[in-house]
Each structure stands twice: as structure tokens, then as C-alpha cells.
């Protein structure tokens, strides 16, 4: 008997018919002899609806109360799914994040998991029940306030529970058949990846691939949890995210063959429209100024992605520093930096939220020269201008104008021979989540 943790996204439980379909899938696992823990997201777009409701009531709702409101969506999903499973003759018990033992810090809206103490989940399994957990939420270790983990937090909940319970696999269900070489809504000829390493998936998630959230993959790698990304709308095998052999009871012949083949140079092409570029113009070129700037940004709890510094051609004693950051944090960053303008001595700020980031990821590029040249040649032929460049051992990222991003993705995807000639990718629910 295996212990399986399954997570179902909002498109998978969007309505009553979808909930019933998911319940049938869960019951099939129980009939096969597996213990099953299920993590659910809110139904459809209900989280967005709750956010809209909060903003109608208050333009700046208190963070604590907003978290309390947003957790309602997942609680609805867990209860109706438990009802649907009971209707099929199997016992199920639903648990909120706090009841499931998901312990977090106090950061409302983007809390981080500190610990998972799944005693009640284990007891439910021992009694023969399916345990259903509300994703995206937990409880503060210090104040016992209800917290949310941020968008995609249900993925992290599922992997954290799988690690705490010692599950054999964590299955992440969405409305696509797995992880593709590019977003199938932009590149219909994208190919499904049968297996991908934690390292490559981390880079893809950090570069904008929305199929798995970054913190979820970080957690999976830290605790060596095999993750199987697949669709709740089909019975097809999905994508395995792991550095270890796929568990024998979940392995298929095609995946055995795939594992024996040489690692592809490029695993996928990711893109991100959620970032903006902030440039600090005319920074005095002396030690300590960059440190002061980035400490100010860090104090606002803003994540920075790409950084470029150039010596000013007009004034050799000054430099321009550009970096990308989440668009939602743009106003906060500008306000914080304007407050230290006189102290640092820079001239002015430039802000651009019309950018898009393209990334190509692949462990194979470590040992294959010419990967970078091929990308820039493809973008040149597609008349894509580049604003910023950043690289790691297995990733190349460039920033361009947001209107050119889709063309850039398709050009890069074709340049590395990733297009599938057989079938087109399907997004069953239309969201890619």
C-alpha cells in the first residue's frame, strides 16, 4: 500500500460536476489500496471574487482580515469534495490548514511554512478515511492567527504534507497534462516533458512557469519528495519532478525508455509578464551606495530578480543600476528609494512595467557550447530587441518589451528544436493551472 498526496487546482474543482469527477478519481485510488490525502484549492475563480469583494468594502483591507476571508474558498472546496466522496460510499474527513497542522510565520498574504504536525491527518488515515485538506493556508506559530501562503500556496501545502507524512508521491493536478517545453497557450506545439530534475524545475518556476510554484519545488527538493504533475481531465501520465528513479508502482514503459536517453540540452522555455524594471540613474560610483540601495529594497521585503549596472558614459563618476522586481511591489519600491534619494545622491528613478522576461532552461547547456549564441540569433531573426541579460549555469534570461514576448517564446522554442510534430498540447480548463 502506498501513501499518495494529491492536490487539485481551482480549474479541477470549478463546479459540482468537476468535484464529482475528482471524487471518482480519488475513490479509484482507494479501491487500488492506496491511502490518500487530498489538498484542494478554491473552486474556479472564487479567490479572485473574494479579493474583489474585499476591495469593494475597503480599498486597503487589513491583512489579517483579508487572510481570514480568502481561506473561505478552500474550506468550501474541501467540504463539498468530502460530501462527493461520501456519496460514493467512502469515508472522508475535511481539515482546515490549521487543523491539518500547517504551522507558519506571521506574514499575512505570503506566510512561510515553519513546520507540519499532521497528527490528525495520520489518525484519519489510520481510521480508513480519505483526508481532505484546505490548501493555501495555515496558522501562525506565535499568535495562532490564520494565514495564507500566497498564490500557488496549495502546491506548497501538498508537498509539505507529503514530506511530513513520508508519502510515496505527491501528485499535482491541474488542467494540463504535465510540464511542457513552453506554455501551450502560446506554443500549441509544445511537448510534454516526461521527467525533469528539481534543479531545472526550480529555474523554470523562478522564470515564470506557472504550472508549479517556486516554493513548492524548493520544498520538494529539500525533502526529496517525488512530484507527479498531471491533468485531472485525463488519465495520461504527466511529468515527474525528481532526481531519483520514479517509484516502481507508478512507472510506465515509456518513462523507463526516456530515463535511459541522453539529457536534452534545453528542457524548456519559460516567460514572465509579472515583473517591472526599475532604474536608479546617476548613482555616485563609490563603495557602499549599491549596498544602501538594495538594503532599502530588502527592508520592504521585495524580491529582486535581474540586476545590471553600467558606468555612465556622460559622467564617469556615476553609474546606473537597473533591476527587475514584481510589478505589484513597484510603487512600494519607488516610495522607499525616493526617501533615500538625498542620502544616496542619485539623480532620478525610471520605472517600466511594460517588460517581459524570456528564459531558456536546461542542464545540458553546461556541456554544450553555442547555446547562448543560438538564442540571440533566433531573437535577432524575429526582430526581438533585448534590454537586459542574466545567466546561470543552466539558464539564460533576457528582458524585452512585453508586446514582443510571445514572439520571443515561439522563436526560442523553435530554435532549440522543441516543437512537437505529433500532437498539440491541450489546456482543458483554459487556465494552465
UniProtKB/TrEMBL annotation:
Family to which this protein belongs: Belongs to the aspartokinase family.
Task performed by this protein: Catalyzes the phosphorylation of the beta-carboxyl group of aspartic acid with ATP to yield 4-phospho-L-aspartate, which is involved in the branched biosynthetic pathway leading to the biosynthesis of amino acids lysine, threonine, isoleucine and methionine.
Pfam families hit by this protein: AA_kinase, ACT_9
Domain ACT, residue spans: 278-354, 360-433
Pathway listed: Amino-acid biosynthesis; L-lysine biosynthesis via DAP pathway; (S)-tetrahydrodipicolinate from L-aspartate: step 1/4; Amino-acid biosynthesis; L-methionine biosynthesis via de novo pathway; L-homoserine from L-aspartate: step 1/3; Amino-acid biosynthesis; L-threonine biosynthesis; L-threonine from L-aspartate: step 1/5
Protein name: Aspartokinase
Record field: catalytic activity: L-aspartate + ATP = 4-phospho-L-aspartate + ADP
One example GO MF annotation: kinase activity
Domain of life assignment: Bacteria
EC nos: 2.7.2.4
Keyword annotations: Amino-acid biosynthesis, ATP-binding, Diaminopimelate biosynthesis, Kinase, Lysine biosynthesis, Nucleotide-binding, Transferase
Amino acid at each position: 500500500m502506498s501513501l499518495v498526496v494529491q492536490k487539485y487546482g481551482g480549474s479541477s474543482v470549478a463546479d459540482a460536476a468537476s468535484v464529482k469527477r475528482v471524487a471518482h478519481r480519488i475513490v479509484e485510488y482507494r479501491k487500488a489500496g492506496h491511502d490518500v490525502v487530498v489538498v484542494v484549492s478554491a473552486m474556479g475563480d472564487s479567490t479572485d471574487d473574494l479579493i474583489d469583494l474585499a476591495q469593494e468594502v475597503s480599498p486597503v483591507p487589513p491583512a489579517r482580515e483579508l487572510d481570514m476571508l480568502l481561506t473561505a474558498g478552500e474550506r468550501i472546496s474541501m467540504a463539498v469534495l468530502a460530501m462527493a466522496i461520501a456519496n460514493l460510499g467512502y469515508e472522508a474527513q475535511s481539515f482546515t490548514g490549521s487543523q491539518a497542522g500547517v504551522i507558519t510565520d506571521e506574514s499575512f498574504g505570503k506566510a512561510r511554512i515553519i513546520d507540519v504536525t499532521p497528527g490528525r491527518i495520520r489518525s484519519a488515515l489510520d481510521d480508513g478515511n480519505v483526508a481532505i485538506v484546505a490548501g493555501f493556508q495555515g496558522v501562525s506559530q506565535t499568535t495562532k492567527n490564520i494565514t495564507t501562503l500566497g498564490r500557488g500556496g496549495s502546491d506548497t501545502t501538498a508537498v509539505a504534507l507529503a514530506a511530513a507524512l513520508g508519502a510515496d508521491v505527491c501528485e499535482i493536478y491541474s488542467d494540463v497534462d504535465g510540464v511542457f517545453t513552453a506554455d501551450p497557450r502560446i506554443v500549441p506545439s509544445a511537448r510534454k516533458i516526461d521527467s525533469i530534475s528539481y534543479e531545472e524545475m526550480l529555474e523554470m518556476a523562478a522564470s515564470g512557469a506557472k504550472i508549479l510554484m517556486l516554493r513548492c519545488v524548493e520544498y520538494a527538493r529539500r525533502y526529496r519528495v517525488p512530484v507527479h504533475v498531471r491533468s485531472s481531465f485525463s488519465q495520461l501520465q504527466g511529468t515527474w519532478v525528481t532526481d531519483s528513479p520514479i517509484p516502481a508502482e507508478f512507472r510506465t514503459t515509456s518513462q523507463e525508455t526516456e530515463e535511459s536517453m541522453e539529457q536534452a540540452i534545453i528542457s524548456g522555455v519559460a516567460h514572465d509578464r509579472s515583473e517591472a524594471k526599475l532604474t536608479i540613474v546617476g548613482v555616485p560610483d563609490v563603495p557602499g551606495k549599491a549596498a544602501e540601495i538594495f538594503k532599502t529594497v530588502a527592508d520592504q521585503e521585495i524580491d529582486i530578480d535581474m540586476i545590471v549596472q553600467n558606468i555612465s558614459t556622460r559622467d564617469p563618476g556615476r553609474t546606473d543600476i537597473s533591476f527587475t522586481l514584481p510589478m505589484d511591489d513597484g510603487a512600494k519600491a519607488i516610495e522607499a528609494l525616493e526617501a533615500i534619494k538625498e542620502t544616496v545622491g542619485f539623480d532620478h528613478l525610471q520605472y517600466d512595467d511594460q517588460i517581459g522576461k524570456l528564459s531558456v532552461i536546461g542542464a545540458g547547456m553546461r556541456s554544450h557550447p553555442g547555446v547562448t549564441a543560438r538564442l540571440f540569433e533566433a531573437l535577432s531573426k524575429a526582430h526581438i530587441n533585448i534590454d537586459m541579460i542574466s545567466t546561470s549555469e543552466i539558464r539564460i534570461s533576457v528582458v524585452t518589451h512585453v508586446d514582443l514576448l510571445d514572439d520571443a517564446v515561439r522563436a526560442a522554442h523553435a530554435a532549440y528544436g522543441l516543437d512537437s510534430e505529433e500532437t498539440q498540447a491541450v489546456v482543458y480548463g483554459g487556465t494552465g493551472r
